[in-house]
Automatic annotation (TrEMBL):
InterPro entries according to UniProt: RidA, RutC-like_sf, YjgF/YER057c/UK114
Protein name, as recorded: RidA family protein
UniProt cross-references to NCBIfam families, sorted A to Z: Rid family detoxifying hydrolase
Family: Belongs to the RutC family.
PANTHER family, per database record: 2-IMINOBUTANOATE/2-IMINOPROPANOATE DEAMINASE RIDA, PROTEIN HMF1-RELATED
Pfam family, one: Ribonuc_L-PSP
Length: 126
């Protein structure tokens, strides 16, 4: 059975999708962009954007009773691969080195609201 996960501590969906869905102990988190949920405004600059995206993901994980340790897969979309090193350091700072998820990072030509980064995740209950 599917359960929709939603929290006010992450940005509301800007289209016909849920923040996340839980099915059979697996949490599928929709791509998060750097919108501050308290103001509804975008943050700018790859450092601030990456932190905001990770905070948004963390809020959704928390709502589902999970942490970054539960994440098994991440997909990162960057507007420019030139931002990879900065993003990677910030991304890693939120994770436990003993439980890194599988991941791919791809450069794309455009993202929603013309942001520089979007990250989606899949997590599993222990």
């Amino acid at each position: 059975m599917k359960q929709i996960i939603n929290t006010v501590n992450a940005p509301a969906a800007i289209g016909p999708y849920a923040q996340a869905n839980m099915a059979n102990g697996v949490l599928y988190i929709s791509g998060q962009i750097p919108v501050d949920p308290t103001t509804g405004k975008l943050v700018e600059g790859i450092e601030k954007e990456t932190h905001q995206v990770m905070k948004n993901l963390e809020a959704i994980l928390t709502e589902a009773g999970m942490t970054f340790k539960n994440v098994v897969k991440a997909t990162i979309f960057l507007k420019s691969m030139d931002d990879f090193a900065v993003m990677n350091d910030i991304y890693a700072s939120y994770l436990d080195a003993d439980s890194y998820p599988a991941r791919e990072t791809v450069q794309v030509s455009c993202l929603p609201k013309n942001v520089d980064i979007e990250i989606s995740m899949i997590a599993h209950q222990d």
